[in-house]
Amino acid sequence: MLVAVAIVAMLPMKAITNESLSVESPFFVTFNVAGIDPDNHDGPRRGPVVPPSVSIDGHTLYLYSGCAGATLQVVNDLDEVVYTTEIPDEIEEIELPETLVGEYELQILRGNFCFYATIDL
Fold it and tell me: How far are the Cα atoms of 43, 66, 93 from residue 49, in angstroms, in the given order?
């Protein structure tokens, strides 16, 4: 059962350039956060939940912080997990399969929280 907790917005990693009027990539992923099991927690929260910092460029995810030890999942519109991997401490980027094309939900499962966002591959 997922329970919505907060919405966190991130800005593009690079700004629009005046000369070309085009947006450069990669872009930071905007995550929502939900509790996986509200009855299962490690005690009282002492502060806000900090989402992972991730950007995406094509099929490459760049992992900046908050991902080590988490599970990454890509979910299709039928709520089927089509890709999953554990994220070790030393990993800074993950290449998603080129066979994934279209709109998916990117999930990062960390502790009792699911950080999720819609991505277009």
Answer: 14, 11, 23
- For 53-109, how does the pLDDT look when each residue is reduced to its tens digit (9 = 90+)? 999 999 999 999 999 999 999 999 999 999 999 999 989 999 999 999 999 999 999
| Buried/exposed 99-118: b ≥16 CB within 10 Å, e otherwise | eeeeebbbbbbbeebbbbbe
Cis-peptide, bond into residue 26, ω within 30° of zero: yes
Q: Where are the beta strands (DSSP E) in 1-121?
A: 3-7, 27-28, 32-35, 53-57, 60-65, 71-75, 81-86, 93-95, 103-110, 113-120
Which residues lie across from 61 on neighbouring strands?
Answer: 56, 94
Q: For residue 56, what are the CA distances in angstroms to 27, 36, 44, 97, 115?
A: 6, 24, 33, 13, 15
Nearest C-alpha neighbor of 28 from the set 109, 90, 115, 99: 115
The helix or strand, by DSSP H or E, that contains position 51, with its residue range, turns out to be none
* pTM, entire model: 0.74
* Number of other CB atoms surrounding residue 119 within 10 Å: 20
